[in-house]
Amino acid sequence: MSIVLDLGGLGPADVTAGPSALSELMASLHVLAEPEHHPEAAGWAARAAAAGPELHEELSVFAPLWARFRCRLFFPRTLPPTTDLYGELAAIAALPTEDFLELVAPGVLGTNVLPVPPARELRSGTTAAEDYVRRCLRRSYARGELARQLVAAPLELRDRLLAVLRAADTAFFAEGWSTLRPALEDHAREVRRRLAQRSPADVLTELLPTAARVGPGERVRLDKLQTDEVKVAPRPLVLVPSARVWPHLTVKNEHPSCVVVQYAVRGTTPAGQLTLRDLHHRLMALTSPARMELCRHLLGEPITTSELAARLGSTEPQVSRALRTLREAGLLRSTRDGKLVRHRLATDVIQRLGHDVLATVAR
């Protein structure tokens, strides 16, 4: 499963990169709402929760907006993105009612599989609005209640949401953002420099460890557990680097203003982000009882192929084939010592498998 971005037809002025304070705040709130997805951020999440305990109830009310299906409201709609949170919040406050509904209603429902009625039909008492609330309620009580409030009084809900976001900024986000922003801005400048020299497809595959070019033209496959093909042009593409979004890779293509890709900046993530194929190879390499026995010998000390064959009562060609499978899966390290080659299990990779499984599923 994957999302394929067709970048054909994009010129140098149609692709930009820059951090967004609002998008980063949303990613931070997601970490707080679903900390089990983010064990690498456990320390930060604990400090943030302690800094704003009075916010817990209000953040829970709005948590569907920053769950797995991120609300489009929190992503840039103008170029370039801005690092000024209060400027972005002011832009939300100035939105006409129907524009606000258009951006928020799909996020409350939390899926693009089910259709959302046009914003003009989401008024109290209409059949479309009542059906929309019922569909949200079937997904969860929290979504249903949020949908009811959105339909009944969208501008009151908007003001309440803005108040919560400002309170979160004061409680824990502003201090962290002042530290994160300079590095993200430096990263974005480097990305823009590359975009001026190379094609967007080349730059995207360099930035994202799980991206790959596919087929003819400027097409890039992003490894995600969903299937879609997105023709970006004539809309621009906005790349939003983040320090909190890992392990997720977020693609928002439903708004006519632009297509947004929010991605984790390398150096802010645990090492070694896997593709789904890589993860499959590693797990399959460990399913064989013979290879598992081999791993137990490789765990203790560096050892040669001949010594392994002697210990296991096997032939060297059989052991070599098993070692090759482990090596191709990234589970084995081999070093030369004179004429001998010694092998050892990559225990750090094995330890990360639990984390990698979660990260791969969470994308």
Q: Fraction of residues in helices? A: 40-55%
Query: Measured on Cα atoms, how large is the radius of gyration?
Result: 24 Å
Whole-number mean pLDDT: 89
State the distance separating the first and last CA atoms.
Answer: 11 Å
Strand order of the largest sheet: 3-4-1-5
Number of strands: 11
Descriptive account of the structure:
A hairpin with a 2-residue loop joins β10 and β11 (340-345). Helices cover 52% and strands 13% of the residues. Strands 3-4-1-5 form a four-stranded mixed sheet, covered by helices on one side. The chain has a four-stranded mixed sheet with strand order 2-6-8-7. Strands 9-11-10 form a three-stranded antiparallel sheet. α5 runs antiparallel to α7 (141-152), α6 (127-139) packs antiparallel against α7 (141-152) and α12 crosses α13. The longest helix is centred in the middle third of the chain and has 44 residues, at 154-197. The protein contains 14 helices and eleven strands. With 363 residues, the chain is an alpha/beta fold. The protein has helices spanning 21-33, 42-51, 56-62, 85-93, 97-109, 127-139, 141-152, 154-197, 200-207, 276-285, 289-300, 305-312, 316-328, 347-362; strands at residues 2-6, 15-17, 211-213, 219-223, 228-231, 237-242, 250-252, 259-264, 303-304, 332-337, 340-345. The chain is elongated.
